[in-house]
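Q: I have two molecules that I believe assemble together. Could you output structure tokens for the complex as a whole instead of separate predictions?
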Amino acid sequence: MEPVRYDDRQKIVRLSTEIVTARRKRNWRKYIYCGLLLFPLVAFIFGFFVIPMLYILYLSFIETKGETNAFYSIGNYVHFFTDSYYLHSLWLTIKISLYTVVVSLLLGYPVALTMAKCSPRVRGLLTLLVASPLLISIVVRNFGWYLLLLPNGTVHQLLISLGITTSPPKLLFSEIGVVIGLSNAYLPFMILSVATSLYNIDPSLEKAAAILGAGPLRSFWSVTLPLSLPGIVSGVVLVFSMSMSAYVTPALMGGANVPMLPVVAYDQIINLLRWTYGSAISYVLLGITLIMVTIFTRMMEKGRYREVFR
Amino acid sequence: MKKRWIAILVSIIVMSLVGCSVPNPKTTSEAKPASNSGDGATEITVAGNGGKIERAIREVIAPKFEKEYGIKVNFVPGLSGEILSKVELQKNAPQYDVAFYVPLDVQRANDKGLTEKLDPSTVPNMDKVDPRFVVVNNVGVPVFGLVIAPAYNTETFEKHKWAPITSWNDLIRPEYNGKTAFADIANDWGFALLYNLANANGGSLDNLEPGLQKAKELASYSNTFYKNSTQMMPAVQQGAADVTVMGSYAIAELIDMGVPLKMVIPKEGAPLQAFSATVVKNAPHKEAAIKFVNFLISEESQKQIAESGFYPVLKEMKVAPKYEKSIGLKDSDHVFRPDFKKMAEIREEWTDRWAKEVTPELGKKVSK
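A: Yes, here they are, computed for all two components at once.
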């Protein structure tokens, strides 16, 4: 390779400054194009998401006394945070969502790892298999679980006839049942987001680790796992926020025993027609989810492995 | 630049919020006047319970109505409470013409001014209706009659030599070992369980306290409370539950499927009521809706409705012969019309107390 001569370097510098100024000129135009391209989506989100959400927020600050008397107040929120029933329900929601995250991470990570290591053909097949549950509505899937897990249902009879146990554990109408249902529903999201970040890991890094004397376990622990953190974080955030707001699964598989917040909010609105209080519950749920997710991502991005997120 | 965007955003938000004022039910009378477009209406929208009611209307009643009046019926399925919520939301621009409710929601819809008063001269069939089914006079008509009553699996009861159920209190027995299917309080069947337990223990709708105390005991011997009939019916069918409290039409359907169930009218009595059809306030096709409501309580329609397992709501009419054995009522059976007005008043308070005091007791005394 020829060494770069002085005037060439001059040229390069000049060229690059030209590009910058040209870019600056073109910038405002780019913004307009971007704006035009984004407009339909922004309008859609604004009309069908932002405005309804603002309306719900507004409702949550209205307190009703009897049939005719309504006024602005923060009473709904005060009620929520001073009543142990709702606080317990909030705690239950957080707890079950955390369990769901842990279960789906533990089950999902090995699958994602397999997908990253195998040949492209097998990977395509695996992706299809992982995503296939998403083709069926969650209501149908959960109702299927419901029929299988009913006391005296297929799973119980199987456990008894195989002689594994004489009194099978309570799978339905319990926190376990809800965690089973939720992990089943959200596992694909965890697998796919972890797998995507595993695909991006440069394979030579593992070779380097091996050269430096790391065994497969050490190499996984010090290289692969940290590098897959962005995928883990996005998977955790996805699964956690979806579990926090899940309605169908807790309603079907938890019965009355697991009153998670979305179910409580639904009951308040639909069965008691307490729109304003139900709205307040929804906003508490939204707020807590946002806070927890923000703290978690901040902690990860600022922590020991912050370099991975750059 | 940034500030301008923020200003624009804020102004849009403010504009969108100006449209909403504190919702005050008193303003409903200012809503747009009733339209008279009913005259030439070629279709109406009917909202009602899914499942049995939906099938009866879609498959039997609606085709006949269309044939006779040339008006097509669009059916939107949903739970009674959901329909009431939607009707309340749409009160300034109603989309539904006819809404089916459980009696409690007829009362609530009436209290909120969401129903049209019916004139007996335009709904001539109202004369023939058995008054025991009527929730509020001239507000809607009862259509699908039922009792809410206990039922038990006779095979299991005989096998274990358990005494048959004769009282609401017999629903509470340690022997059932959690194999019960009772609806949660938000469901009509669940609320019926509460006030009938109160009735059986010296209470009433004015004093549900004894019922609530009994319900705690009932919860401790049950694994769960079910959210709705869609969950309860497979549980009873698969033998996950031997004891239940349901609407008579659901019991009839399970017996039809071959489940060895027996419906009991307890000695303290069982509530008799009906899914009722109301004409939504300011319905877009009011006159057609009134015709439909009148058609629902014609003898011909009621005969068809009886065939699907409901009690006909007309005087002098009896349950269909094929259901006589499973859900037919004898003269000695004590059935009563509950005080729905009172029920609507106390519903919220007792729903809250049930959730906080009864639900936590679930399964505590079920042996593992």
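A: One point stands out. Chain A touches chain B at residues 51, 54-55, 58, 62, 67-68, 70-72, 85, 146-147, 150-153, 167, 170, 172-173, 251-252, 255-257, 259, 267, 269-275 (CB under 8 Å).
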